[in-house]
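Raw record, unedited: Thioredoxin-related transmembrane protein 2a
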Amino acid sequence: MGLITGLCSFLYHLPQIYKWLLKPYYIMSFFMTVAFMVVRKAPGLCEHLATQREDGNSCDFDWRELEILMFLTAIVMMKNRRATFVMTCKPPLYMGPEYIKYFSDKTIDEELQRDSRVTWIVEFFANWSSDCQSFAPVFAELSLKYNCAGLRFGKVDIGRYGEVSEKYRVSTSPLAKQLPSLILFQGGREIIRRPMVDNKARAVSWLFSEENIIREFNLNELFQKSKKLNKSRGLKEEDQNGIPPEEGSDELQTESDNPQQPTESKKDQ
């Protein structure tokens, strides 16, 4: 029964797996992985390779190459139990559009506590983490869909700012598996954190997909409340100034509240 369930789950997610694997860096990684083995076994090419075999057969692996392959395989399996026998490259840094504000150790507390009506979703990441790099496009897409005056998105590099890591209790240790971490703040107070952390300071397994984040953080509900906040702000300004609303005023206010560019560029980070 378990085998059938696993097979059905694999077939259901097969289109997503193909879409994920057909990215250029995974294709290049696969070719780099098999290149040496193909050349070592290819007739016409292997004869020109050096070998330490006693029989002088250069078209087969010698003991030294077998030891290296076994050692690399063990390292990969120890680093990630779900890894396969394929050495993969790191995904490239995401440089696409986003509505995200980048914090430093001096600005994060001030921004989170500036307005109690604003809800912040902050990603704690590290540039060296491949999981954070893979999650960057997902978080950017969410910011493009849900960012508004009352719901803001931010990021802070805790690999660079160790004090922030300690204050918000997000470990950068690879063994803890807490990177990336998403925390929802309201009025400067932590409301929700994913992934959750157990008593041993290790992250509870959680899939960082767009659907899971929308569901766990109630983004649709928060977004609707934030739009009402925009309208209420506009009405208050009209009552105070005695000026009738102009067409598209809500849109202008939302655009003014949304930072188009982070205060700290990705290049500086």
